Amino acid sequence: METTSAATADLETLARVVGAVRGNIERVIEGKPDVVHSALVVLLAEGHLLIEDVPGVGKTMLSKALARSIDCSVRRIQFTPDLLPSDVTGVSVFNQNTREFEFRPGGVFANIVVGDEINRASPKTQSALLECMEERQVTVDNNTYQLDTPFMVIATQNPIEMEGTYALPEAQRDRFMARVSVGYPVEAAEIAMLNTHTDARPLDDLEPVTDAGEIRKLCGIVGQVYVSPAIQQYVVSLTGATRRTDDLVLGASPRATLHLVRAAKAHAAIMGRDYVLPDDVQLLARPVLAHRLLPSVEASMGGRNTASILDGILSGVAVPAPSQQSGPGAARGADAPGSRHRA
Q1: What percent of the chain has pLDDT over 70?
Q2: pLDDT value at 236 more than 80
Q3: CA distance readout (Å), 78 to 114, 128, 177, 215, 246
Q4: Distance CA 276, CA 226 (A)
Q5: Structure confidence at residue 340 (pLDDT)
Q6: Is 285 domain-assigned?
Q7: pLDDT digits (tens, 9 = 90+) for 30-77
Q8: Is residue 106 situated within a structural domain?
Q9: Does some domain include residue 252?
Q10: What is the band of 110 on the pLDDT scale with cuts at 50, 70, 90?
């Protein structure tokens, strides 16, 4: 009983903090609750977020609003064709007074790193993020420097069809837990934006509503969310199906499987549950998996993109029955509102 009460209190704390951060972001980003929710899921799952869309829809505004809502160190890196890898990771500089080399940290040494227009930098510079995104460390001149936690990269990019862009390599895309698209606002939201953004900058008025220490605690709460063996098998079956289909030449990696489970746990916690349902996995499958997949030539010529292929895979993989979701909260979750269980 005490364990249940503690878990309930933890989830209530998480809901309170998430609600405050969400409200702060929505003061700046009008009419995009799903995108804001995805950003919060990635934050609590200790992942990295890729925001892709055309210029001017609020990609950088979203990333800055999330960063300013947390009282922690924030660095912004503007990716350009002449940006060097050392600008990202840091560089050793010889000190004439001490006659020794001193390390000067680069832009990734922060809790939240905002990488603006990441695909406008050269592939060499993009690769400077590989180690820090996966291992939370930076190696320069044979010396390794640990990064603080939490550590999150929020990168924006324009569609590859835009002028002056470089395609992100597969290894880079695979390190982003999720990719989201902001999209154009609905008419009412765009009118509201005119009323709030023409004579002021709402981003300048944002104050932090939480700090790095509290975010670390919330990540620990998410880590305790229960995932039943049946749900684990379901996730593995989904990612395995992407590797076997002829419509894809590159399926989901084991890292993608891990990211999908972590994101599902974060979503479940935000929804007030200490256990994962198949609905959590299904909801996050597209933002977590689609950007890692490569369609075959035949699928592309047939007008099928990775999202539609993934939808077909989701419909073809059997969902665990409620009776298989044993463990904490399973009895409550079996008939949870909105739960969709296919035979």
Answers
A1: 91
A2: yes
A3: 8, 14, 21, 26, 39
A4: 6
A5: 43
A6: yes
A7: 888 899 999 999 999 999 999 988 888 888 888 889 999 999 999 999
A8: no
A9: yes
A10: very high
Q: What is the 3-state secondary structure (H, E, C) of the chain?
A: CHHHHHHHHHHHHHHHHHHHHHHHHHCCCCCCHHHHHHHHHHHHCCCCEEEECCCCCCHHHHHHHHHHCEECCEEEEECCCCCCHHHHHEEEEEECCCCEEEEEECCCCCCEEEEECHHHCCHHHHHHHHHHHHHCEEEECCEEEECCCCCEEEEEECCCCCCCCCCCCHHHHHHCCEEECCCCCCHHHHHHHHHHHCCCCHHHHCCCCEEHHHHHHHHHHHHCCECCHHHHHHHHHHHHHHHHCCCEEECCCHHHHHHHHHHHHHHHHHCCCCECCHHHHHHHHHHHHHHHCEECHHHHHCCCCHHHHHHHHHHHCCCCCHHHCCCCCHHHHCCCCCCCCCC
Structure tokens at 107: 């832009």
Type of residue numbered 130: L
CA atoms of 332 and 329, how far apart (whole Å): 5
Strand partners, 144: 139
* Domains in the chain, number: 1
Contact between 178 and 47 under an 8 Å Cβ cutoff? The reply is: yes
From CA 266, how far away is CA 269, in angstroms rounded? 5
Listed range (173-187, 195-209, 329-343) with the worst mean pLDDT: 329-343
Q: What domain range is 320 assigned to?
A: 226-343
Q: For position 330, what pLDDT does the model report?
A: 46
Task: Look up the CATH number of the domain holding residue 310.
Answer: 1.10.8.80
pLDDT at 232: 96
Backbone Cα Rg of the chain: 21
Q: Which residue has the higher pLDDT, 199 or 86?
A: 86
Q: Please give the pLDDT value at position 341.
A: 40
d(CA 154, CA 62): 9
Residue 16 covered by a domain? no
Residues 256 and 206: beta-carbon distance below 8 Å = no
